[in-house]
Design brief:
Layout: E1 4-8, E2 17-21, E3 35-36, H1 40-47, E4 53-57, H2 72-78, H3 93-119, H4 126-142, H5 144-152, H6 159-177, H7 182-194, H8 204-207, H9 215-222, H10 224-233, H11 240-248, H12 269-284, H13 295-304, H14 311-321, E5 329-332, E6 336-342, E7 352-358, E8 363-371, E9 381-384, H15 387-390, H16 397-400
Antiparallel strand pairs: 1-4, 2-3, 2-4, 5-6, 5-9, 6-7, 7-8
Helix pairs in contact: 3-4, 3-5, 3-6, 4-5, 4-6, 4-7, 5-6, 6-7, 6-12, 6-14, 7-11, 10-11, 11-12, 12-13
């Protein structure tokens, strides 16, 4: 008889070896799906996570049949509360944008706290990070474009913190596109959140410098990869993959990156993913010394950099964010300019856009929302437009509305 047995969550007890859940990883609160239940807090968390059934391995822990009768008092203390099943929902872009705005505020606060704890010499609470990673992943699952795009709109003061949040979301989305399983996507998300933790040990006067860095300052900043890796390696609770991404997300496929000049397959898959996600969010974000590039223009430039990225990973990344990501400025066949709102999964070249300007008259026109995949819409994207050419003052507000002024 197989030692792997399916039971109800309410039957879980201390001493059982949890082999897996019968639902998506974002719905349970644990870093790993397979472990021995030793702590009552873990048992309580499992009971209240909203999943109805799970699997145990009786060769590594207790069996349900080994359960001894409880006294009335014990039963009152350990009986799980009523469990409500949670269904994965899909939301519209506008709806998820509102939820993402709330999440961005809480994620920023959590990330600031994490960085400050490191600056004070305290250990990272990786267990405390898991709910945040789960919330970010849940938003990506509901509607990937909302959080990823909103996290891109960060102030210079927020850059280090919101960059970590954005890379976390991008890593989860990319992992899903690459067909990774749930536990691997979770690992990718936590690696994304922690990939720049070494910057907590970088002097603030360099980190927050409004102008370009000197060569010496740049060398100091480059140390964040090894400093972060050393920090993460001290804690056995932090997965090795997170330390690997922290150390190697600035490596390049041709060996010209840092800190070790690794090339090709000597760079782990997660680190190659981290390289793409890190650069994309960096180049599309406004910095004190430069404005962010247009999202579609950024993808085109990244694709042109020979030897920088893993081509397969980059192709999957483009699929995950769209050929024309949210916020991209595009020109339509009709001669109108539009901003991309939302992707159409069935056709990456036919997103939902907001038309707002006539290239011919060089005048604003009535804003109109168009789903270019709709057979009734007689228009199409003919190319991306450079933002620098037009210098529109409120481009982000066309897709983010009032939220664009808060980030």
């Amino acid at each position: 008889m197989s030692p792997i047995k399916k039971i109800r969550i309410s039957e879980l007890r201390l001493g059982m070896y949890l082999h897996g859940f019968d639902d998506a990883w974002i719905k349970h609160p644990f870093w790993k799906s397979r472990f021995l239940l030793r702590e009552y807090a873990d048992l309580q968390a499992a009971w209240t996570c909203g999943i109805e059934t799970c699997w145990i391995d009786t060769s590594k822990g207790r069996d349900v049949l080994q359960e001894e009768p409880e006294s009335d008092c014990e039963a009152a203390e350990t009986r799980p509360p009523d469990v409500v099943a949670i269904e994965q929902e899909n939301t519209s872009f506008d709806e998820e944008l509102q939820r993402a705005a709330i999440l961005c505020r809480s994620a920023r606060a959590a990330t600031v706290s994490m960085f400050n704890e490191v600056r004070l010499g305290k250990a990272i609470d990786v267990e405390g990070c898991l709910p945040l990673v789960a919330e970010i992943a849940a938003s990506v699952l509901r509607n990937p474009g909302a959080l990823i795009s909103l996290a891109r709109l960060k102030t210079s003061d927020d850059y280090t913190y919101m960059h970590s949040v954005a890379v976390c979301a991008l890593m989860v989305s990319l992992g899903r596109t690459l067909g990774m399983d749930e536990e691997y996507c979770r690992e990718a998300g936590i690696a994304g959140l922690l990939h720049d933790i070494g910057k907590a040990l970088t002097p603030l006067e360099i980190l927050n410098k409004p102008g370009r860095l000197t060569a010496e300052e740049y060398e100091t900043v480059k140390l964040h990869t090894s400093l972060g890796h050393q920090l993460l390696s001290r804690d056995a609770a932090i997965p090795e993959a997170a330390g690997d991404v922290c150390l190697h997300h600035h490596e390049k496929m041709d060996g010209s990156g840092y800190p070790r000049g690794l090339c090709g397959n000597k760079i782990s898959l997660l680190a190659r993913m981290g390289a793409v996600c890190d650069v994309y969010d960096a180049v599309t974000s406004n910095r004190p010394y430069k404005n962010g590039w247009d999202p579609a223009e950024s993808l085109a430039r990244m694709a042109s950099w020979k030897g920088h990225f893993d081509r397969t990973v980059l192709s999957a990344f483009i699929k995950s964010v769209g050929i024309y990501p949210t916020g991209a400025l595009v020109r339509l066949h009709s001669g109108r300019l539009a901003v991309v709102l939302e992707q159409n999964k069935a056709s990456l070249t036919k997103p939902v856009v907001k038309v707002f300007f006539s290239e011919q008259s060089r005048e604003p026109i009535e804003v109109e929302r168009l789903d270019l995949s709709d057979s009734q819409v007689d228009d199409a994207i003919v190319g991306r437009e450079e933002r620098e050419r037009w210098n529109f003052p409120s481009l982000e507000s066309l897709w983010a509305g009032q939220l664009s002024a808060r980030h």
